[in-house]
TrEMBL record:
The keyword Zinc does not apply. Keywords: Disulfide bond, FAD, Flavoprotein, NAD, NADP, Nucleotide-binding, Oxidoreductase, Redox-active center. This is Mercuric reductase, putative. Residues 7-301 form the FAD/NAD(P)-binding domain. InterPro entries: FAD/NAD-bd_sf (IPR036188), FAD/NAD-binding_dom (IPR023753), FAD/NAD-linked_Rdtase_dimer_sf (IPR016156), Pyr_nuc-diS_OxRdtase (IPR001100), Pyr_nucl-diS_OxRdtase_dimer (IPR004099), Pyr_OxRdtase_I_AS (IPR012999). One of its GO terms (molecular function) is flavin adenine dinucleotide binding. It comes from Maritimibacter alkaliphilus HTCC2654.
């Protein structure tokens, strides 16, 4: 048995774990990085990268084989940045095995025992597969396996109408598959209803069947065809099933009880500093049970670097975290939705908006579907909903504004190249100030007096 003593032991080589490992190692800390699966985690291998590559390939009109070749090429191009070789070059000791705590300050991985001053758990999550009768008796796919399909499905049944389900539905529709999405409640139900409706209507216009209130209660194989029976007796038939109903934290067989680390319903229990119930052990990313996005895991990694490496206090926050569903049109959000903002701020809230149909670049390119909605309290944005072309890119300055507590004047005062879609943010900000300037009778009287005073 080999024993390694180190400053920091990171368990999991996804976005969060790699952020901690690279930052700590480059600052001079001794780091052990443990990963039992693929370096780069879910995002690189089975999540963000392949899904966006497949969507792009479909939008470009590539055929099935060329699209999947593009997916593999994208993964292969990015992989060296997350590779074992790169992290060993940064000074990390990389162990490719399953990690299990054997005590509050000790982990075993294969035939190696690691004793560290601090531990960071970054084991992420995996697809949650519900216990639907018959589902385990038919071939079914998740985001971990769907990109390995050798042949194009004739008719893909997607169980789950959240972001992953809608993105994969669109990708496969663009590649020529028939697609039916079955959602137990409301599709894209966590997003602004008006924005979600625009996206869903567009997906339906592209030929995707989206059925809401369709809880799957049984799955069966009938003469080589797969049938999904919903709770009200409707039956949907297809050739393949993709399950996209959520994620489950990877806490299995980690010996967390021996480390004094408590879990909650959705993952490991952490405080606002991302510390677990063992103060020497931190957790980042999906494993914490909060927002499950790659960029959140990376952000968590940056927060944890401060106390583990620099011994400085740091707290994680969520009010400035953006997210995007990469459908066509895209749907992006940062901060509070209109509904949440009204509940939180009541009469203090002002909602301003602008439509893509009024943006000159959108008109010139024929991409006029969409809008921006900004929730404002005391001249500061507390939430922004963007739906339209490149919404994921356009949300960036709003994430900055909310993060830094900027007022809308910072956005309205920007000078932007013309014509660009970014002007829609400036237009929305201007719509907040316009009534104060152009519908203010007192101001108009003052201006008239000032004009008379000028010779």
């Amino acid at each position: 048995m080999t024993v390694i003593k180190t400053d920091i032991c990171v368990i999991g080589a996804g976005s969060g774990g790699l952020s901690v490992a690279s930052g700590a190692a480059q600052m001079g800390a001794k780091v052990v990085l443990i990963e039992k699966g693929e370096m780069g985690g879910d995002c690189l291998n089975t999540g963000c990268v392949p899904s966006k590559a497949l969507l792009s390939a479909g939008a470009k009109g590539l055929d099935w084989d060329a699209a999947h070749a593009h997916v593999k090429s994208a993964i292969a191009t990015i992989a060296p940045h997350d590779s074992q070789e790169r992290f060993e070059g940064l000074g990390c000791t990389v162990i490719r095995d399953h990690a299990r705590f054997t005590g509050p300050r000790e982990v075993r991985a294969g035939d190696t025992t690691i004793r560290a001053r601090r531990f960071v758990i970054a084991t992420g999550s995996r697809p949650f597969v519900p216990e639907v009768p018959g589902l385990d008796e038919v071939p079914h796919y998740t985001n971990e396996t769907v990109f390995d399909l050798a042949e194009k499905p004739k008719h893909l049944l997607v169980i789950g109408g959240g972001p992953i389900g809608c993105e994969m539905a669109l990708a496969h529709r663009l590649l020529g598959c028939e697609v039916t999405v079955l959602e137990a409640q409301k599709a894209l139900g966590k997003d602004d209803p008006e924005a979600a409706a625009l996206v869903l209507d567009t997906l339906r216009d592209k030929g995707i069947e989206i059925v809401e209130g369709a809880q799957a209660v049984r799955v069966r194989d009938t003469d080589g065809r797969i049938e999904v029976v919903t709770e009200f007796g409707r039956v949907f038939t297809g050739s393949h099933i993709l399950v996209a109903v959520g994620r489950k934290a990877n806490t299995d067989d980690m010996g967390l009880d021996k480390a004094g680390v408590e879990t909650a319903d959705r993952g490991i229990k952490v405080d606002d500093r991302l510390r677990t119930t063992n103060r020497r052990i931190f957790a980042v990313g999906d494993i914490t049970g909060g927002l499950q996005f790659t960029h959140v895991a990376g952000y968590h990694g940056g927060v944890v670097i401060r106390p583990t490496v620099l011994r400085l206090p740091a707290k994680a926050r969520t009010d400035h975290i953006p997210w995007c569903t990469y459908t066509d049109p895209e749907l992006a959000q940062v901060g509070l939705t209109e509904e949440a903002a009204r509940k939180a701020h009541g009469d203090q809230l002002t909602v301003v908006r602008a439509d893509f149909a009024g943006n000159d670049r959108a008109i010139a390119t024929g991409e006029t579907k969409g809008f921006i909605k900004v929730m404002v309290v005391k001249s500061k944005p507390v939430g922004v909903t963007l739906v339209g072309k490149n919404a994921g890119e356009l949300i960036a300055p709003w994430s900055l504004a909310i993060s830094q507590g900027l007022s809308l004047s910072a956005i309205s005062g920007m000078v932007l190249p013309y014509p660009t879609l970014s002007e829609i943010s400036k237009r929305a900000s201007g719509n907040f100030y316009s009534p104060k300037l152009f519908e203010n009778e007192t101001l108009k009287r003052v201006v008239r007096v000032l004009q008379r005073l000028v010779p």
